[in-house]
Design goal:
24% helix, alpha/beta, globular, single chain, two-stranded antiparallel sheet, 119 residues
Amino acid sequence: MRIAIPVFGNRISPRFDFAPYIGLFDSEGKKIIASREVCCDGWGDVERVSKLKDMGTNTVICGGLPNSLLNLLTSSGIQVIPWVAGNADQALDLFLQGRLKERMVIHPERGGQRLPGMK
């Protein structure tokens, strides 16, 4: 499985469409077997989705994104876990454990926590 996380430093970028880099992680079961960072500075929305699809991305973990971009990703067969905030590595760990949910804020000392009022 290939997982993509738009990043800003070591954190999930607040916006998918403005992230300067995308971390790509290949997993087998609950283990990361390969990773790399791709510069996506200057890519438009359609180009981001097209390149992620061409790279074999199965899942995107991201911060905010417009509904049009969410629809473009999902219609391309890519699962999206949106509105996640915090450290990218911790989000990846939670995803591999099956514990990452949309609208989750990841606190270093407590793991993940859903925003109030979210189901």
